[in-house]
Design a protein that fits this description.
The complex is a heterotrimer. Chain A is an alpha/beta fold. Chain A has one domain: Rossmann fold (3-Layer(aba) Sandwich). Chain A has helices spanning 36-51, 68-76, 95-107, 128-136, 209-212, 220-223, 248-260, and strands at residues 2-6, 9-11, 18-19, 24-25, 32-34, 56-62, 81-85, 113-117, 139-147, 156-162, 166-173, 176-180, 204-207, 226-233, 242-245. Chain B folds into two domains: 2-170, Rossmann fold (3-Layer(aba) Sandwich), CATH 3.40.50.620; 199-317, Rossmann fold (3-Layer(aba) Sandwich). In chain B, strand 1, helix 1 and strand 2 (32-39) form a beta-alpha-beta unit. Helix content of chain B is 24%, strand content 28%. Chain C is of the alpha+beta class. Chain C is 36% helix and 20% strand. Chain C is built from 19 helices and 18 strands. The longest helix of chain C has 19 residues, at 413-431. Chain C starts with a helix and ends with a helix. The chains are: A alpha/beta, B alpha/beta, C alpha+beta. The interface between A and B is large, with 71 and 79 residues.
Chain lengths: 264, 319, 494
């Protein structure tokens, strides 16, 4: 059985500043971290591997080479292979283009299931899995809160999904893409200090455009159909404080406030 | 003339109606035709609001079979040549829309919360980006269609323009179903998760003796009840309703702190709260320093009076 | 002796209900709050004790210690379990924990002679509540007050939040009873003062369970005047100004019960509602009316003298309100464990040192500077600051407070984050002639510096150990350095 975790790295919120005048966030030099939900997907895969050591896990990510140490740490906790899809001409691709780049690599390998986090770091849905699934012509289901581990060995898998108003159980045929949430409950373990220098270079491969063979106009900003014009930090307004009593005037004031803000 | 498709997912019709406001803002005064797509639904909610209802009836078409739905939506898009395809950013809408965009080779902007126009009158979309504290301004390159998902409750449709709605029944659309099957589905029993709700009525030591009074107020305001540690200590709530370092981190739009002192261990868990109202007999309580409104007085009295006020106004409204 | 034989033998000394071998309880007994995060994550790397034993009287303690001494079984005395430096952590494969659970009686409250006698397992809070009923107080109020017990308070040389007026536990202990490894029971009698040779109380106070087991304590008690309490608070432009004001009040001969100076960062986490990004100095004056008023005037005069460094006065009600929410309880501890299980974080660590007035600011600045520039995970620190909270005629303490996001395995947390920071604090303190351990004790995790802490006086400490515990069965690894285990359990080098 082969599992491929398609993961993403995002800038670490705590480490980026912003530049007011240009209304742009400063991304350069800020630390990257694994998208938290992707960590749960990896954590789940590693949990399965504990029970079934024959399971082969590959992580695939498209990112700058600067994330290499982060991928190496993932290999140090038990993932079998790391694939870093990286090339200067890929930089600046939107998610659809990123999906096409990753999709091309994924078409070239064998897998039973693809795994990823359901959500991105920005509380938005992780768009990669549905897009990649479309390119690979496989099913994708998001919001998975638990997986029936016993069904993993067969060609059909049972998953429980948390929808807005309901819990549902689905049966999916392999191959399929599974979008996990933190409710699956297995965190990605940290590398032990004693393993932190373990050499994993032989398990890491970098796939660049010499392998994938895109035309320059197909990828990066040129190949993307959307363009982010600016990113701004939302600033919390400091509102004037008002002190009232519990008399009818005070109640009226709070009531009107609730109404004005559409809570009533 | 512009032409747009709005996907009316059976379970999210009320949210889909709001998307009509997105169209109004997108096209301004320019003429446009609005198509509603309903699958195995009755299209009633769109009556008088859209120009056409594309009424697809086929029981083999399941709302969770996104490959089949992608077949249907892209076929329709090719037939009607839409400029924009709009989906509610719902559980299924969020994953269907990107699939459709890939299939059509279309530009895709996800989870927009606002629309505006640049100097050349070209639309720009506002959406959360890289952490919820940031927003991105995104533009689609020339070409159509553009696929959008829209965050629920970010647009308000006022329904002022009455339209004549024509029904188009579609029954012979081709699609390929399979590979996924629903085994069971049951409604979520009362979701008590305080970490994803709009309004929290939260109690502390100052209202411990009347803690049960919070639930009716929370209900009246369609919020949930949470608490600080003194309430947990008295076993009045489970730990899952505890706000604080050792409990949940919450981000409601409104946090009403009733008789809560506001130790740092409590307030660190108030992340991205838009408004805080605190009710406290002690205006020196730290929580008051964070509050937009401080009600100086007994929290139980406040709850009582507030609830009465809401009830009174409700009964007037229905008179 | 193997574990089963130990249990068999124990059964001949005490009854079955006095021996606890429950797995969860033994897991809890294998460490203390030093390894709180690893404990919460079920990742402790130290051996569990064989049993927790609850003796009922000094005779039983004597018999158990004698048995352990003869068979060289490690013994860890335990009371309220609020230790923070590994004093309760177990480093030996065969260990028994001797718990004060049944030493729970208040023997006598004697208001006429202003003293009270309690058994070693009496919680401080219980005695305090009893004393309040008759208008008295222990004057002792560590943050752990609701949980800590007298045996532990005395064994660790504990200190409370009102120490500037009432002193540390060493100023309160009148007499005590303790048992030595050879089974000998000593009783130090209760007198107001004497010149009968060296003050032998100080052999017991602060021994951290490495010399003897405390069974009973007599302490001073004080008249309580809460109605006279006065509070003062000021924002200051730097922590040095705060420390200068503390010194001024002290050297002029006044003793407020609380006298504290906070750095900006520490002020932010205690007083987020009024600190305005500044440092804070605050006082509480307590006692008879005349003394409180005179102390209040002295505080105001000291503040006036350093007014250039004062930004503004804080409403005293805010200080009073803060003060009334100060102590933590067992609930706080439970909460922290819940947090540690759910998230990769905890409430942080502290390292408390002391030095004279002149040296404290130097140490503070040197430490902060070194942590920021040398510590390789400095960018993961979410809070680093400190406060002075216990002042004396000739100096004060500094409580370094730090927290960080934990981006490593629970087993590695201490070595990756806490230990390197604590090492810097200890090194700088010793370099400038301060003490590395103001009131948490040495435990096991500062034992690597015990020699340096005491210098040539270590000779005296070593002789005490040789004399009272020649076989080294009492709390192996605490205070007295054990290089093998330091390597294994602190540096993870097998």
């Amino acid at each position: 059985m082969r599992l491929v975790c398609v993961i993403g790295f995002t800038p670490d919120k705590q480490s980026f500043g912003d530049n007011h005048e240009k209304q742009k966030l400063i991304w350069q030099g800020c630390r990257m971290k694994l998208n938290p939900d992707d960590g749960y997907a990896l954590g789940f895969a590693l949990h399965l591997k504990k029970q079934n050591p024959d399971l082969f896990i590959e992580v695939v990510t498209m990112a700058p080479l600067s994330v290499t140490p982060l991928v190496e740490n993932i290999l140090r906790v038990g993932v079998d292979r790391g694939t870093l899809v990286s090339d200067g001409i890929f930089a600046g691709s939107d998610t659809a283009t990123t999906s096409r780049i990753l999709g091309k690599y994924l078409k070239s390998i064998d897998y039973d299931y693809l795994l990823a986090g359901s959500f991105g770091d920005d509380s938005k849905i992780n768009q990669l899995p549905p897009q990649v699934s479309e390119l690979l012509n496989i099913n994708y289901i998001s919001g998975i809160s638990s997986i029936d581990e016993d069904t993993f060995s067969s060609s059909k898998i049972l998953v429980e999904v948390e929808e807005e108003k309901a819990m549902a159980t689905y049966e999916l045929s392999a191959p399929a893409f599974l979008g996990l949430t933190e409710k699956c409950g297995h965190k990605l373990p940290y590398v032990r200090l004693k393993d932190s220098r373990m050499d994993v270079g032989h398990r890491l491969q970098v796939i660049d455009n010499s392998v994938l063979g895109f035309e320059e106009r197909e990828v990066g900003p040129k190949g993307s159909l959307t363009k982010t014009i600016s990113v701004q930090a939302l600033r919390k307004k400091t509102a004037q404080q008002r002190i009232v009593g519990t008399d009818s005037e005070g109640i009226e004031y709070v009531y009107n406030f609730l109404k004005e803000k559409r809570f009533i | 003339m512009h032409r747009a498709l709005v996907y009316f997912e059976k379970e999210n019709c009320q949210h889909a109606v709001q998307l009509l406001e997105v169209l109004r803002q997108l096209y301004g005064n320019e003429a446009f035709e609005c198509y509603a797509l309903t699958i195995n639904g009755n299209g009633q909610v769109c009556q008088g609001k859209v120009d056409y209802v594309l009424d697809v009836q086929n029981q083999a078409l399941k709302p969770y079979d996104q490959r089949a739905l992608t077949d249907v939506v892209s076929t329709l898009c090719k037939t009607y040549d839409f400029d924009h395809l709009l989906f509610v950013a719902s559980h299924f809408g969020r994953t269907l829309a990107p699939r459709v965009a890939i299939r059509l080779g279309a530009a895709f902007v996800s989870e927009i919360t606002a629309v505006r126009h640049d100097a050349d009158s070209q639309p720009q979309f506002i959406a959360p980006e890289a952490g919820v504290q940031n927003i991105g301004v995104i533009k689609a390159k020339a070409g159509k269609p553009v696929v959008l998902t829209v965050r629920p409750d970010t647009f308000q449709y006022d329904g002022s323009q009455e339209k004549t709605t024509k029904q188009i029944k579609l029954s012979d659309l081709e699609f390929k179903a399979g590979g996924i099957r629903q085994i069971s589905r049951h409604d979520n029993v009362d979701n008590n998760d305080i970490s994803d709700c709009e309004l929290l009525i939260s109690g502390g030591g100052g209202i411990a003796k009347h803690f049960e009074a919070l639930a009716p107020l929370a209900k009246a305001l369609r919020g949930k009840v949470s608490a600080s540690r003194p309430i947990l200590d008295r076993d009045l709530i489970p730990r899952s309703a505890l706000v604080g370092q050792s409990g949940k981190t919450v981000s409601p739009r409104l946090y009403m702190a009733l008789g809560i002192h506001g130790a740092i261990q409590h307030v660190v868990a108030l992340e991205r709260v838009e408004h805080i109202i605190s009710v406290n007999t002690n205006v020196n309580a730290p929580i008051c320093s964070l509050s937009e409104i401080v009600v100086h007085g007994d929290a139980a009295t406040f709850v009582d009076k507030m609830l009465k006020k809401i009830m009174e106004d409700n009964s007037h409204a229905t008179d | 002796m193997d574990k089963n034989s130990v249990l068999d033998q124990l059964n001949t000394l005490v009854t079955a209900d006095q021996i606890n071998t429950n797995t969860d309880d033994l897991y809890e007994a294998s460490a203390d709050r030093y390894k709180k995060y690893a404990y919460a994550r079920k990742a402790l790397d130290v051996p569990a004790p064989v049993a927790i034993v609850y003796p009922k009287n000094a005779e039983e303690v004597s018999a158990i210690l004698k048995f352990c001494n003869e068979n060289e079984i490690n013994v860890i005395p335990r009371a309220g379990m609020t230790a923070t430096e590994g004093g309760l952590e177990n480093w030996k494969p065969v260990t028994i924990v001797l718990d004060t659970k049944f030493f729970d009686k208040i023997v006598k409250i004697d208001t006429y002679n202003s003293q009270a006698t309690v058994q070693a397992g009496v919680p401080l809070q219980v005695l305090e509540d009893e004393l309040r009923k008759v208008g008295y107080t222990t004057g002792h109020s560590p943050q752990s007050k609701p949980v800590a017990k007298y045996g532990g308070l005395v064994a660790t040389r504990s200190i409370g939040q009102f120490s500037t007026l009432y002193g540390g536990i060493e100023d309160m202990v009148v007499g005590l009873e303790c048992v030595f490894p050879n089974g000998h029971v000593s009783r130090i009698k209760n007198v107001s003062r004497r010149a009968g040779g060296p003050d032998i109380r100080h052999i017991v106070i602060g021994n951290e369970g490495t010399l003897c087991y405390i069974t009973e304590v007599t302490i001073k008690i004080f008249k309580y005047y809460p109605e006279n309490n006065k509070f003062y608070g000021y924002l200051t432009k730097d922590i040095e100004t705060g420390i200068k004001i503390l010194r001024e009040v002290m050297v002029n001969g006044f003793r407020p019960s609380v006298a504290r100076a906070y750095s900006e960062e520490d002020a932010a986490q205690h007083f987020y509602h009024f600190h305005e990004g500044k440092c804070i100095v605050l006082f509480m004056a307590e006692g008879p009316k005349g003394i409180v008023e005179a102390t209040g005037t002295a505080i105001e005069e000291a503040v006036e003298q350093f007014k250039d460094g004062i930004i503004k006065q804080v409403d005293s009600k805010l200080i009073e309100d803060w003060f009334n929410h100060l102590n933590w309880s067992q609930k706080h501890i439970d909460d922290e464990y819940a947090e540690m299980r759910a998230k990769d974080s905890h409430a942080g660590y502290t390292t408390e040192i002391s030095a004279d007035w002149e040296t404290i600011p130097t140490i503070y600045n040197a430490v902060i500077n070194r942590v920021r520039t040398e510590f390789d995970r400095a960018d993961e620190i979410t809070m680093l600051g400190g406060h002075s909270s216990h002042s004396y005629l000739n100096g004060t303490n500094m409580y370094f407070v730090y927290n960080y996001t934990i981006n490593c395995a629970p087993e590695d947390e201490l070595l990756v984050y806490h230990h390197p920071i604590q090492k810097i604090i200890v090194e700088e303190t010793l370099k400038y002639g301060g003490s590395m351990c103001h009131h948490h004790g040495i435990g096991k995790y500062r034992s690597e510096w015990t020699l340096e802490e005491h210098g040539t006086a270590y000779f005296m400490l070593e002789k005490l150990k040789e004399a009272f515990d020649p076989k080294g069965i009492m709390n192996h690894g605490t205070i007295f350095p054990q290089p093998e285990e330091v390597k294994k359990y602190i540096y993870q080098q097998d």
